[in-house]
Amino acid sequence: MSEIAATTVHEAYAFACMKCGYGWEQSYEIEHHTDIHGHQFVVYTAEGQRVPSPLSTPTCTNCGGHVVRIMRAGRVAGVQELLRKQPAPRTAHDPSVSVAAAPERHWRLADLLHPFHRR
After folding, report:
1. I want to staple 65 with a disulfide (CB 3.0 to 4.6 A). Which of 19, 58, 82, 92 is the partner?
2. In terms of Cα–Cα distance, which of 117, 11, 106, 119 is closest to 69?
3. CA–CA separation, 6 vs 18, rounded Å?
Protein backbone atom coordinates (compact mmCIF):
# COMPACT_ATOMS: atom_id res chain seq x y z
CA MET A 1 0.00 0.00 0.00
CA SER A 2 1.55 3.32 -1.01
CA GLU A 3 1.50 6.09 1.51
CA ILE A 4 1.98 9.81 1.29
CA ALA A 5 2.35 10.76 4.96
CA ALA A 6 3.54 9.14 8.17
CA THR A 7 4.28 10.40 11.67
CA THR A 8 5.61 8.38 14.59
CA VAL A 9 4.98 8.97 18.27
CA HIS A 10 6.28 7.04 21.25
CA GLU A 11 3.84 5.94 23.95
CA ALA A 12 4.17 3.72 27.00
CA TYR A 13 1.40 2.07 28.96
CA ALA A 14 1.11 0.11 32.19
CA PHE A 15 -1.15 -2.94 32.30
CA ALA A 16 -2.65 -4.92 35.17
CA CYS A 17 -4.53 -8.19 34.72
CA MET A 18 -7.66 -8.24 36.85
CA LYS A 19 -7.75 -12.05 36.63
CA CYS A 20 -4.29 -13.03 37.91
CA GLY A 21 -2.94 -9.72 39.24
CA TYR A 22 0.09 -9.66 36.95
CA GLY A 23 1.37 -6.21 36.00
CA TRP A 24 3.69 -5.07 33.24
CA GLU A 25 4.67 -2.05 31.19
CA GLN A 26 5.33 -1.74 27.48
CA SER A 27 6.61 1.03 25.19
CA TYR A 28 5.28 1.40 21.66
CA GLU A 29 6.12 3.27 18.53
CA ILE A 30 2.83 4.35 17.00
CA GLU A 31 3.00 5.20 13.31
CA HIS A 32 0.14 7.28 11.94
CA HIS A 33 -0.13 6.86 8.18
CA THR A 34 -2.27 8.30 5.42
CA ASP A 35 -2.38 6.37 2.18
CA ILE A 36 -2.60 7.89 -1.30
CA HIS A 37 -6.40 7.70 -1.12
CA GLY A 38 -6.55 9.75 2.08
CA HIS A 39 -7.38 6.81 4.37
CA GLN A 40 -5.72 6.92 7.75
CA PHE A 41 -4.33 3.88 9.54
CA VAL A 42 -2.11 3.21 12.53
CA VAL A 43 0.69 0.69 12.98
CA TYR A 44 1.94 -0.28 16.44
CA THR A 45 5.40 -1.72 17.02
CA ALA A 46 6.94 -2.92 20.27
CA GLU A 47 10.59 -3.92 20.52
CA GLY A 48 10.85 -3.74 16.73
CA GLN A 49 7.94 -6.12 16.10
CA ARG A 50 4.56 -5.15 14.66
CA VAL A 51 1.86 -5.78 17.29
CA PRO A 52 -1.90 -5.26 17.54
CA SER A 53 -3.14 -2.13 19.25
CA PRO A 54 -2.80 -2.59 23.01
CA LEU A 55 -5.88 -0.41 23.45
CA SER A 56 -8.30 -2.57 21.48
CA THR A 57 -7.64 -6.12 22.67
CA PRO A 58 -5.25 -6.20 25.62
CA THR A 59 -4.20 -9.69 26.66
CA CYS A 60 -2.39 -10.63 29.86
CA THR A 61 1.10 -11.83 29.05
CA ASN A 62 0.98 -14.08 32.13
CA CYS A 63 -2.39 -15.90 32.01
CA GLY A 64 -3.87 -14.89 28.65
CA GLY A 65 -6.83 -13.17 30.31
CA HIS A 66 -8.63 -10.30 28.61
CA VAL A 67 -9.76 -8.28 31.62
CA VAL A 68 -6.78 -5.95 31.61
CA ARG A 69 -6.61 -2.49 33.12
CA ILE A 70 -4.65 0.00 31.01
CA MET A 71 -3.00 2.88 32.84
CA ARG A 72 -0.43 5.56 32.25
CA ALA A 73 3.16 4.41 32.28
CA GLY A 74 4.81 4.17 35.68
CA ARG A 75 1.86 2.73 37.58
CA VAL A 76 3.19 -0.84 37.70
CA ALA A 77 6.71 0.31 38.48
CA GLY A 78 5.33 2.50 41.28
CA VAL A 79 3.42 -0.35 42.88
CA GLN A 80 6.40 -2.67 42.54
CA GLU A 81 8.56 -0.06 44.30
CA LEU A 82 6.01 0.15 47.13
CA LEU A 83 6.10 -3.61 47.48
CA ARG A 84 9.89 -3.58 47.68
CA LYS A 85 9.74 -0.98 50.45
CA GLN A 86 7.29 -3.07 52.54
CA PRO A 87 9.02 -4.47 55.60
CA ALA A 88 9.51 -8.22 55.47
CA PRO A 89 6.82 -10.02 57.46
CA ARG A 90 8.01 -11.34 60.78
CA THR A 91 7.78 -15.04 61.29
CA ALA A 92 7.40 -17.42 64.19
CA HIS A 93 11.22 -17.70 64.19
CA ASP A 94 11.39 -14.11 65.47
CA PRO A 95 11.12 -14.43 69.28
CA SER A 96 10.03 -10.80 69.72
CA VAL A 97 6.72 -11.25 67.88
CA SER A 98 4.09 -13.93 68.17
CA VAL A 99 2.58 -15.49 65.04
CA ALA A 100 -0.85 -14.09 65.96
CA ALA A 101 0.54 -10.55 66.22
CA ALA A 102 2.28 -10.67 62.82
CA PRO A 103 -0.05 -12.15 60.21
CA GLU A 104 1.54 -12.82 56.83
CA ARG A 105 0.38 -10.57 53.99
CA HIS A 106 0.00 -11.62 50.37
CA TRP A 107 -0.33 -8.61 48.07
CA ARG A 108 -1.77 -8.90 44.61
CA LEU A 109 -1.39 -6.08 42.12
CA ALA A 110 -5.14 -6.12 41.47
CA ASP A 111 -5.80 -5.47 45.18
CA LEU A 112 -3.37 -2.56 45.24
CA LEU A 113 -4.96 -0.99 42.16
CA HIS A 114 -8.50 -1.25 43.55
CA PRO A 115 -8.61 2.44 44.60
CA PHE A 116 -7.96 3.45 40.99
CA HIS A 117 -11.01 1.65 39.55
CA ARG A 118 -13.60 3.99 38.16
CA ARG A 119 -17.23 3.43 38.96
Report:
1. 19
2. 117
3. 35
